[in-house]
Amino acid sequence: MATPTAHTEQASGPKVFPPFNSETFASQLFWLAICFIFLFVMMSKFALPRIGAIIDNRQKRIADDLAAAATAKAASDAAVAAYEQALAEARSRAQAIANETRDKQAAESQAARHRIEDDLGAKLAAAEKTIAATKQAAMANVRGIAVDATKAIVEKLIGVAPADAAVDAAVSEALKG
Amino acid sequence: MADPVHQFEIVKLFPVTKIGGQEIAFTNSAAFMVFAVVGITAFLLMSTARRAVVPGRMQSLAELSYEFVASTIGSTTGKEGMRFFPFVFSLFMFILVANLVGLVPYTFTVTSHIIITIALAMSVFLTVVVYGVWKHGLHFFGLFVPKGIPIFILPLIVFIEVLSFISRPISHSVRLFANMLAGHITLKVFASFITLLGGLGAVGIASAVLPLAMVIGLTALELLVAFLQAYVFTILTCIYLNDALHPGH
Predict the structure, then answer these.
(1) Reported pTM
(2) Which of A16, A23, A102, B152 is the most exposed place for a label (fewest CB within 10 A)?
(3) Shortest alpha-carbon distance between residue A71 and chain B (Å)
(4) Distances (CA, A) of B62 to B51, B59, B95, B96
(5) Tens digit of pLDDT for each residue in B157-192?
């Protein structure tokens, strides 16, 4: 630092280049030490921990919020999945119930129809039997009426009552015919 | 012509005490140092008083300075360097504010005095040596013995390494001191041209516009230099501290 400059050449005189004036060094070092130590203590004990805490707090808060958002999204995804599953289950159960009901009703109506058909068949058979019996009876009566009518017609025509055997034979002949 | 060196004059405001025959006085330099450290502390504590999650402008500035220094340390020394964070932060803020305050006309630039920058550089140098030896013992001196050097030129290399290590505080302090000193002298010289030309009548006043423009440009440059030199001092501090943390290269 002792290299002479334009100003230090006057060192013998009253003027010394101020930064190289060693008379002021002690005061400057004294106050620099006090000020710098004060600054260092204030920074390390108060200012920097506080700013660091603010920044950490902010980062933690952002991370927490992101985590909470992720959790909420997962929950809503799960809810949507559960809803869709429930919907699908309900739909398939409704389908099953509808099928079961349809099958049951079809079976019931089938059975009812069979029952009614059987009933009707039985009634039909009975009616046919009645008709057949009525017809037979009617046919028997027709013969008696025919014999009586023949006897009456012949008696009217010839005035003589014909023999029953002859009339009977003649009616049999005609009925056959 | 105004003396461009007058601005560096130390003015005793009042004497305080005597230590070992040296008079200790409260000077203009001391006043600006006190102003700087009280200003830094007050600004950082008041701007962060609300501890807002969403910061205002002042709190953003405080956080910006914190994160700027923290990332500078982190990128040069890694995580272990954070133990020196308060020290490096104090250095950066002290130099930055002292440089910036000194740019205001009629103020005093604390960092334009070699004894201040030497003291700051020596505090870094001693921190490196004391921490390095305390943490790594003799292994710390492996810093001066690079690996893979042939044995016959090793003494020369070690000599150069030791020399460069010892000259660190000199280059570290002179860089800041010389920048501040030269910048302020240049500003003063060009500013005095304005008053000189202004005394020469109409032509002089018209031509005084040139040094005025120069002073405006230089002021902008000095603002940059004030920040840049504080940053350079800080990053060199980090690089030197890195040697104390990781002496094995």
Answers:
(1) 0.75
(2) B152
(3) 23
(4) 11, 5, 16, 14
(5) 999 999 999 999 999 999 999 999 999 999 999 999
In a domain, B136, yes or no: yes
Three-state DSSP at B23 gives strand
The rounded distance, in Å, linking the Cα atoms of A39 and B38 is: 8
Residue B153 in contact with partner chain A when CB distance is under 8 A: no
For residue B179, give its domain range. 6-245
Contact B40 A26 (CB under 8 A): no
CA-to-CA distance for B65 and A43, rounded, in angstroms? 12
- What is the tens place of the pLDDT at every residue in B222-233? 999 999 999 999
Q: What is the average pLDDT across B189-205?
A: 87
Total structural domains in chain B?
A: 1
Task: Mark which residues 30-49 of A lie under 8 Å from B by CB.
Answer: 30-33, 35-36, 38-40, 42-44, 46-48
Contacting residues for A58 by C-beta, under 8 A, at least 6 apart: B53
B5: tokens are 């060196």
Nearest CA in chain A to B87: A40
Given CB atoms, is A26 within the 8 Å cutoff of chain B?
yes
* Residue B239 domain flag: yes
Nearest CA in chain A to B171: A1
Give the pLDDT score at B249: 56
What is the C-alpha to C-alpha distance for residues A48 and B41, in angstroms, rounded to an integer? Answer: 10
Write the DSSP assignment of A67-132 as a string of letters.
HHHHHHHHHHHHHHHHHHHHHHHHHHHHHHHHHHHHHHHHHHHHHHHHHHHHHHHHHHHHHHHHHH
- Map residue B210 onto helix, strand or coil: helix
- Angstrom CA distances, B129 to A29, A32, A35, B134, stand at 21, 21, 23, 8
- Smallest CA-to-CA distance from B32 within B117, B115, B106 is with B106
Does residue B195 lie within any of the structural domains?
Answer: yes
Determine, for residues A54 and B51 on separate chains, whether the beta-carbon distance falls below 8 Å. Answer: yes
- Has residue B89 been placed in a domain? yes
**84-123 in chain B: CB under 8 A from chain A:** 85-87, 89-90, 93-94, 112-116, 119-120, 123
Average pLDDT over residues A11-33: 81
